[in-house]
Design goal:
The complex is a heterodimer of chains A (380) and B (197). Chain A is of the alpha/beta class and 380 residues long. Chain A folds into two domains: 11-185 and 293-379, Alpha/Beta hydrolase fold, catalytic domain (Rossmann fold, 3-Layer(aba) Sandwich), CATH 3.40.50; 189-287, Rna Polymerase Sigma Factor, Chain: A. Helices cover 35% and strands 17% of the residues of chain A. Chain A contains ten helices and 14 strands. In chain A, strand 2 (22-23) and strand 3 (29-30) form a beta hairpin. In chain A, helix 1 crosses helix 2, helix 3 (187-201) runs antiparallel to helix 4 and helix 3 (187-201) runs antiparallel to helix 7. The radius of gyration of chain A is 20 Å and the shape is globular. Chain B is of the alpha/beta class and 197 residues long. Chain B has a seven-stranded mixed beta sheet, sandwiched between helices. Chain B has helices at residues 3-12, 27-35, 47-56, 65-71, 92-102, 116-125, 149-158, 184-187; strands spanning 17-21, 39-44, 60-62, 77-83, 103-111, 162-169, 190-196. Chain B has a single domain, classed as 3-Layer(aba) Sandwich (Rossmann fold). In chain B, helix 1 (3-12) packs across helix 2. At the A-B interface, helix 9, strand 14 and helix 10 of A face helix 3 and strand 3 of B.
């Protein structure tokens, strides 16, 4: 793989404040919104080469490159896709990634200080929707002087943002690249989400979301939520390949209730490392954002909105993804087509389950690169 | 563009919503979209052709056309197109039925296995014919359901389809004129049909 984007820094900017607060669909107001973001590449003179990366539930603004002092083997979460010569080619595109509203990685969320109370919001943070996330991204773009995106790209919850954005703001996005996403969570998806939420809220240290000042955090609940989530991100095949029924650090089973199988050890590790970098309330809020997402609930509006713009869609799914299976992607592609939008669709073979969107599978990257080339050619 | 695709484009007409099954590199759809005010969707299994469609800005689904057709909702399109592909599908009758279900009009082009030169190869040389329209050897051909124009027309009747027009083409896909309609099954290398219910 060619060299990536090198050393990068997360930047912060206030996009809504007391004079211009963020008003959500529900009518709720967030007085101050700060956004953490990173950019890679250079905005061209005509300002038409901007590509916005929308991240998934546990993502952040650090999509590519290394922060000063980072382990060179642990670059940003979508580093294999972003960089010179990579599908999102930073020699040609100005790539922006921002932590979402409600997040815990620098953008205002439930762990931020509520200016009214001078205490963290906790569960007093208003309920948000994908639409609110998108509006904060748009406020950031306004600060950066960008009116139009060559592309919005996202996997999972990120794809949902790209989809909502293209529907709500026709004419702002030339191409939406939606990967491993869904336009509507299934009952099964919502069920998993509910169990994860219960795990957090039933943790005695949760303290109704006001755990920030107690010196304790609902780590057990959050770790459990992450373990449940992680099972749905992998495929049966990838778990079999990775762990099989092997025993951790031993040849023979220990026959007890402690962690024994490798897969158990792995899940524990995932849960533990997650609590060190993530906020339980953000997990609750963003989980709910996904549960309620339903951009085609008013097909008449969707059709008229999409007709006003000229956004093309690339919808990709992975054959081993059972969280948002290919059926989800096909349904989304179909609903977009019924609304009159031009949609290209491909199911890609990969054994990594829902997480496939993070892996550099050649088939996947080839199609993304091909779609980006077309968008760039069209704009030129 | 291949000459037979020009004929197909002429039969599709203006401002239609078109499903092109086995759309190849997207040339036909690109022409329909850019010059004839159509919109459309291609289905293509070959990955290089799929990417060629992307490069042309033609919306396309990667996959098997028979499976995609099954998934397509009734009346989703104005016109369904199957050019030089019927002979390569597993279930030709089911495909014709599906094309009728998803669109009011169907355009189908096919090579004529009843063409005299092919008959000659079989009768005189005793070998499976290899021609510009059917360039494969019998053992590596994707063409598993070859038929004559007469066979195809019999199937359309059975499927309750009406032939609105039939344009006979030569081996390069150019329109041939002056053939007696009744002699077409012997003298035409291929044909493009416009069909409806």
């Amino acid at each position: 793989m060619p060299e990536g984007v090198g050393i990068v820094e997360t930047q912060r900017v206030v996009v809504f404040d007391g004079d211009h607060p963020l008003t959500l669909d529900s009518g709720a107001v967030i007085k101050e919104v700060e956004v953490a973001y990173e950019t890679y590449g250079t905005l061209n003179a005509s300002r038409d080469n901007a590509v916005f990366i929308c991240h998934a539930l546990s993502g952040d603004a650090h999509a590519a490159g290394l922060h000063e002092g980072d382990d060179p083997n642990r670059p940003g979460w979508w580093d294999n896709l972003i960089g010179p010569g990579r599908p999102l080619d930073t020699d040609r595109f100005f790539v922006i990634c921002a932590n979402v509203l409600g997040g815990c990685k620098g953008t205002t969320g439930p762990s931020s200080i509520d200016p009214d109370t001078c205490k963290p919001y906790g569960l007093r943070f208003p309920q948000i929707q994908v639409r609110g996330l998108v509006n904060v991204h748009r406020a950031l773009l306004a600060k950066l002087g960008i009116e139009k995106l060559l592309a919005a790209v996202g996997g999972s919850l990120g794809g949902m943002q790209a989809l909502q954005w293209s529907i709500d703001h026709p004419g702002e996005i030339d191409g939406a690249l939606i990967v491993a996403a869904s336009a509507r969570l299934s009952a099964q998806n919502i069920a998993f989400s509910a169990v994860a939420r219960e795990a957090i809220m039933r943790d005695p240290d949760f303290a109704d979301g006001d755990y920030y000042a107690t010196g304790k955090r609902p780590d057990r609940g959050l770790a459990l939520a992450r373990m449940i989530g992680h099972i749905t991100y992998l495929s049966e095949e990838s778990m079999r390949e990775k762990f099989g029924r092997r025993i951790q650090d031993a040849e023979v089973p220990r026959y007890g209730f402690d962690v024994d199988f490798q897969v158990e050890s792995y899940l524990h590790y995932q849960g533990q490392s997650f609590v060190e970098r993530f906020d339980a309330n953000t997990y609750l809020y963003l989980g709910r954002v996904m549960d309620y997402f339903d951009p085609f609930s008013d097909p008449v509006r969707t059709t008229s909105q999409l007709a006003k713009g000229n956004t093309g869609f690339l919808v990709l799914s992975f054959d081993s993804d059972w969280r948002f299976s290919t059926d989800h992607a096909r349904d989304m592609a179909n609903e977009l087509r019924i609304a009159g939008a031009p949609v290209t669709f491909r199911e890609i073979s990969s054994s990594h389950g829902h997480d496939s969107f993070l892996f550099p599978t050649p088939d996947y990257h080839e199609t993304v690169a091909s779609y980006m080339d077309r968008l760039a050619g069209q704009a030129a | 563009m291949r000459a037979d695709l020009n004929i197909v484009a002429g039969l599709v007409g203006q401002n239609q919503n078109v499903l092109d099954l086995g759309c190849g590199d997207g040339t036909l759809l690109e022409t329909l979209i850019e010059r004839q005010g159509c919109r459309g969707l291609g289905v293509e299994r070959d990955i290089d052709d799929f990417h060629a469609c992307i490069a042309r800005g033609v919306p396309v689904t990667h996959g098997d056309l028979e499976e995609e057709l099954e998934r397509t909702a009734e009346g989703s399109f104005d016109c369904s197109v199957l050019s030089l592909t019927l002979q390569a599908v597993r279930h030709p009758a089911r495909v014709l039925e599906g094309m009728q279900r998803v669109a009011a009009r169907q355009i189908v082009s096919l090579p004529n296995f009843g063409y005299w030169k092919l008959r000659k190869d079989l009768v005189v040389h005793g070998r499976m014919p290899v021609t510009p329209l059917l360039p494969y050897e019998w053992f590596d051909t994707p063409n598993i359901h070859l038929c004559t124009l007469a066979d195809f027309e019999a199937l359309t009747t059975q499927a309750g389809m009406k032939i609105d027009s039939r344009i006979l083409v030569d081996a390069d896909g150019h329109r041939v004129t002056g053939l007696a309609a009744r002699a077409a099954n012997l003298l035409a290398p291929g044909a493009v049909y416009s069909l409806s219910a």
